[in-house]
Amino acid sequence: MLNLHKLWLLSCLGVIVVIILYFQAEIAHLEESYRKLEYKLTQNQFNSRQFNPNILQKDDNNDLIVIYNRVPKTGSTSFVGVAYDLCKKNHFKVLHINITANMHVMSLSNQYKFAQNVTKWQEMKPALYHGHMAFLNFERLGTSSKPVFINLIRKPLDRLVSYYYFLRNGDNFRPHLVRKKHGDKMTFDECVEKSQPDCDPNSMWLQIPFFCGHAAQCWKPGNQWALQQAKHNLVNHYLVVGVTEEMLDFISVLESALPRMFKGATEHYLNSNKSHLRQTSSKIDPAQSTIERIQQSTIWKMENELYEFALEHFKFVKRKVLMKEALSVPQTFFYEKIRPK
Predict the structure, then answer these.
(1) What stretches of 136-223 show up as alpha helix (H) in DSSP?
(2) Among 71, 157, 203, 290, which is most exposed with the fewest C-beta within 10 angstroms?
(3) Is 96 a catalytic residue?
(4) Mean pLDDT for back-to-back runs of 10 residues, the chain (341 residues)
């Protein structure tokens, strides 16, 4: 009799468990249906509450101006190669900014002329301008519109070593062009050991002034104000700053943020030879002792601080754009409480 009672209790418990599991499944199903319905309602609200995405497509996107003030030896040729391949398909212009004598700063009169020319040249819009020039603040030059700035940054010592051997051995982009240090067989290690000017840590002072701008203080090696101004400009005046080591992600972020120009850029980069368009020939990695000696310099520490700052910021931006978060409803925005009706 006691066994029958236990069996009856176990049966009841089993039935209760089954019922609970059934209702949990139904609740989960209803919650999923609710989320899908909520998303559809959100999309309907988004499309109906006085937001017309076609306005952006017809007007603003066709006036788009992007300036890529490319830092030398950061992989910029590979990136620009993608832009040149896409410009005809995506209907935008690509223009190279060539400043006399490869100077990185413009005279005040040329700053003004350049800003006015770029923003008012309607026949060249939308456009990507690229060249080795310092950041230029269009707000102080009286323009009615402001371009979008983008850039790439590289580990400072890697950039310096690449440039050192580039001046001596050239690259695979134009292999027959004789560079100004052609024939010099001194290695970077030997250069550092002999304290030669080509490997002087002051030669690393380039990425900070490129982001800092045209102020005189920007170009004084070791200037703390220049470093802080470079950080300020990077966050406040650049849409996105990628790192050379993560070129693919940089391109993918741009495709997501600026599809008017960069639609299809990620696939093109993956399936073409643009990822290794320009590589320095016969580059020798520096010895650990050389690296440690360079890293003792104030200039390296400051340039590396900017690089680490840019890398952290890029990872933050990339995480929001590229990585799929565990959300059943994609992020969007819409308008509500619109008055008067």
Answers:
(1) 156-169, 188-193, 207-212
(2) 203
(3) no
(4) 66 75 72 57 48 52 94 94 96 95 94 95 96 96 92 97 87 51 80 93 96 98 98 98 96 96 95 63 86 97 98 94 58 75 72
- Active-site residue 132, yes or no? yes
The residue from 132, 214, 237, 268 that is catalytic is 132
pLDDT at 37: 56
Among candidate residues 235, 264, 249, the one with its CA nearest the CA of residue 322: 249
Q: How far apart are CA 255 and CA 234, in angstroms?
A: 20
Domains annotated on the chain, with CATH: 61-321 (3.40.50.300)
pLDDT of residue 102: 86
What's the alpha-carbon Rg for the chain, to the nearest Å?
A: 28
Choice among 104, 130, 214, 268 that is catalytic = 130
CA dihedral 203, 205, 207, 209 (to 10 degrees): -130
Residue-level pLDDT at 39: 47
Contact 275, 247 (CB under 8 A): yes
pLDDT at position 3 is 66
Distance of CA 98 to the CA centre of its chain: 23
Whole-number Cα distances in Å, 221 to 200, 202, 204, 301: 11, 6, 9, 12
Distance CA 106, CA 116 (A): 14
Distance, in Å, from the CA atom of 296 to the CA atom of 276, rounded to the nearest integer, reads 32
